[in-house]
Specification:
The protein is mostly helical and 77 residues long. It is globular and about 25 Å long.
Length: 77
């Protein structure tokens, strides 16, 4: 089984629909819709972006994504 980082990298590539190495809010919303729209609310998506976007550029790079979800910190308690 893949470790947490490998799993996070796989998810990142799946969500990065344009392949530019960055996740935008729209790409995250599209992924949420593809998951049936039941994965996260709009406010949860915004909170996810805010918590992951360490450099403040409005997008989430691979390392930012792995840093947040690669350790299970994104999961609800």
């Amino acid at each position: 089984m893949a470790n947490a980082r490998e799993a996070a990298e796989t998810e990142f590539r799946r969500f990065d629909s344009d392949g530019d190495g960055l996740l935008t809010a729209d790409e995250i919303r599209q992924a949420n819709v593809a998951l049936g729209g039941q994965g996260a609310s709009e406010s949860e998506i915004e909170a996810f972006i805010e918590s992951a976007d360490r450099d403040g550029d409005g997008t989430i790079g691979l390392e930012e994504f792995v840093g947040l979800v690669g350790h299970g910190r994104h999961e609800k308690a």
